[in-house]
Design a protein that fits this description.
Elongation Factor Tu (Ef-tu), domain 3; 2 domains; 7-stranded mixed sheet; single chain; binds FE2/S2 (inorganic) cluster; Rossmann fold; 274 residues; alpha/beta; binds flavin-adenine dinucleotide
Length: 274
């Protein structure tokens, strides 16, 4: 039987595998003690006994309830400890929390996804969801950017995606090496060359704040309506329940009202790109 997890009490989950994606990013494959379900784009709080907890968006398919993958960039205290975890160790998961991607609203449309760095984590979960019902979408174009070829994550998944009908993947790195045969430059450069029917399309942006800002500006310049640009926002969080106020962005609680918002919902709120 699948449950929605608990928002208060961490569910125990065993680390089955640790995948090194890049020098700074690892994916944990977790087996929860009972089935755990979430909608793509929703997030969890991952608890490390004795150290604390931090929010992450699962990077695995929302259709899988017996295992959960979380892709984590080393950023500070808790993520340092998470990177040191070994198979067999146990963590806690609370959630899921928030509002994820409204996949049903994308039916019949073309989807353009702009992702950078560890922002590919929620996007991979969304892509698994889209791949499972690919006949419902016209085309899915993924533009992904990383700092260097070494920092590009999910290499086997990208290969699989490239072989999937209706899916196209373009990648760029800020600084190429001699083996890199894709684009060099910031991720927004990739948007210059894609073919998309903007009137029947939705765009999704997820990545570091500076990428989210320039990705959004580029999409607006291309003619996307503000209401068709979906952003996955990250703010410092504590309770995850709309109680403590840590995650406030103007009138919104990112933990409860987001993390996924359309640009027109949040464009007038303060500090959206910080
Ligand atoms: C909804 C949501 C989903 C996220 N999903 C992912 C994910 O899938 N993968 C991933 O690697 N990271 C994700 N993050 C960011 C992740 O939560 C932070 O990197 C983590 O909390 C840092 O904890 P720390 O103790 O290691 O760092 P700290 O020692 O607390 O701080 C290190 C730096 O990280 C910043 N930071 C701390 N907490 C957060 C936070 N909650 N959000 C943003 N920056 C923060 C601090 O301001 C500081 O600059 C997500 C954040 C949110 C809000
Ligand atoms: S994290 Fe406490 S209100 Fe959002």
């Amino acid at each position: 039987m699948s449950n929605k997890g608990s928002i208060y009490k961490p569910l125990k989950a065993k680390v089955e595998k640790v995948i090194t994606e890049s020098p700074t990013i690892k994916t944990l494959v977790l087996i929860p003690e009972s089935e755990f379900s979430f909608k793509t784009g929703e997030f969890i709080e991952l608890t490390l006994n004795g150290y604390g907890e931090a929010p992450f968006t699962p990077s695995s398919s929302p259709l899988e309830t017996k295992r959960l993958e979380v892709t984590i960039m080393k950023a500070g205290y808790v993520t340092d400890k998470i990177h040191a975890l070994k198979p067999g160790e146990v963590v806690g998961i609370r959630g899921p929390f928030g509002r994820g991607y409204p996949v049903e609203k994308f039916y019949g449309k073309e989807i353009v996804i702009v992702g950078g760095g560890c922002g590919f984590a929620p996007i991979r979960s969304l892509l698994y969801n889209l791949m499972a019902e690919k006949e419902k979408f016209k085309k899915v174009t993924v533009c992904y950017g990383a700092k260097t070829p070494e920092e590009c994550i999910y290499k086997p998944f990208v290969e699989k995606l490239r072989k999937t009908e209706r899916f196209e993947v373009y990648r760029s790195v800020d600084k190429a090496d001699e083996k890199w045969d894709e684009t060099e430059g910031v991720v927004t450069v990739l948007l210059e060359d894609i073919k998309v029917d903007i009137k029947n399309s939705a765009a999704i942006v997820c990545g570091p704040p500076v990428m989210m800002k320039f990705g959004t500006l580029k999409l607006l310049e291309m003619g996307y309506p503000e209401s068709d640009i979906y952003l996955s926002m990250e703010k410092n969080m504590s309770c995850g329940l709309g109680k403590c106020g840590h995650c406030m962005m103007g009138k919104y609680y990112v933990c409860k009202d987001g993390p996924v918002f359309t640009y027109d919902e949040i464009k007038n709120e303060p500090d959206i790109w910080l």
